[in-house]
Amino acid sequence: RVDMWIDCDPGHDDCFGLTLACYPPPPIAVNLLGVSTVHGNQTVDKTAGNALNWLHACGVEDVDVYRGQAAPLVRKAAICPEIHGESGLDGFAFPQPHKGVRTEKAVMAMADRIMGNEGKVTIAATGCLTNIALLLTLFPEVKPQVDRIVMMGGAMGLGNTGPVMEWNIQIDPEAAHIVFESGLDVWMVPLEVTHKALLTQEHLQTIKQMGGPFSSCCVSLLTFFSSTYSRVFAFDQPPLHDPCAMWCAISKGKGFTHKKIRVDIEMASSLTAGQTVCDFFNLTHKTPNVQVCTDMDLQEFWRVMLEAVRRAAER
Ligand code: BDR
Ligand code: CA
Fold first, then answer.
1. Which of 15, 84, 209, 230 lies 20 to 30 Å (CA to CA) from residue 116?
2. Backbone CA torsion sign across 52, 55, 56, 61
3. Among 201, 208, 222, 198, residue whose Cα is nearest residue 90
4. Is residue 196 a contact partner of residue 149, using CB atoms and an 8 Å limit?
5. Cα–Cα distance, 129 to 123 (Å, whole number)
6. Prediction pTM value
7. Is the ipTM of this complex over 0.95?
8. What angle, rounded to 10 degrees, do the helices at 213-233 and 44-57 form?
9. Residue list, ligand 1 pocket, CB within 6 Å
10. Which atom of ligand 1 is nearest to the CA of 127?
């Protein structure tokens, strides 16, 4: 069993990561302590509302959602409506907004629940790292209680929202720097892996055939996500980035090819701020600080992902 906290910015692909954590096929088991949201794909108010709407659509009512930071540590906030729409979750009309975002600040709730948990906790991050950087800065005493931090983000080579920058790192490089320097067991699932997890027509058909309201909600959202990915990135099929990191967190890296290397975050350059500089050959002679995933067992990923959606649809 994995005791887990999820920090996210839903966001279409974040939602499927949440579903994977809520409905993993047995014998896999996740004890979800809470969900916090962060600015990113949309404003933090919208991502918090989306997380609640989505959990409700999945039939999950016993997981609390907390609103985190509205802006990066140092820089100006940016949002990504070109991919996720004005709501952050366009493509399906949720009965808006599902009420009940907790009033406690996300960072306080994370510190409290992680410290109060009997066993060590895995933090799965599928948005930028502002909340987590703040958590580690304000409450360094949580560190011994953190089993690992698994995040979707970064790139070994080409980026998606900058030539060599991936969105989650690009929008708050200083936060990523704090997390990568934390000394914790940090896992990075970069674009080179997530760009392999492409949602095919067959996957969409499988979800459609599950039937029922949750299945049609998934199909509508994924169809929207497909259309923005094809318009903005000319992708025939959209990548489900965030569930890859979620799967890595749940499987504890099983099924992933990974290597602990030195990764530094570029923060100074106006051209490449947010680049994850991956030193595969240890040319810098610095101590390795991040487990970088370079590949994933795709077949196993899609098996658990689709099974989780089926379990949510058939509940
Ligand atoms: C990441 O950016 C967001 O738009 C997605 O939800 C994902 O976390 C991909 O670069
Ligand atoms: Ca995300």
1. 15
2. negative
3. 222
4. no
5. 11
6. 0.98
7. yes
8. 140
9. 11, 13-14, 41, 80, 83, 126, 152, 160, 166-168, 241-242
10. 8
Residue 278 belongs to domain with CATH number: 3.90.245.10
Ligand 2 centroid–CA 14 distance in Å is: 5
Q: One of 39, 98, 203, 241 is an active-site residue; which one?
A: 241
Atom number of ligand 1 nearest to Cα 126: 8
d(CA 125, CA 178) in angstroms, rounded, equals 14
Of all atoms in ligand 1, which is nearest to the CA of residue 13?
6
pLDDT (tens digit, 9 = 90+) per residue, 125-134? 999 999 999 9
Task: Say how many domains are in the chain.
Answer: 1
- From 6, 8, 9, the mutation candidate for ligand 1 (largest count of ligand atoms within 8 A of CB) is 9
Q: Is the pLDDT of residue 216 over 80?
A: yes
Q: Which domain holds residue 35?
A: 1-314
Q: Under a CB-based contact definition with an 8 Å cutoff, are residues 129 and 176 in contact?
A: yes
Please report which ligand is nearest the Cα atom of 225.
1
Element (H, E) at 35: strand 30-37
- The reply to whether 98 belongs to the active site is no
| CA 226 centroid distance within chain | 18
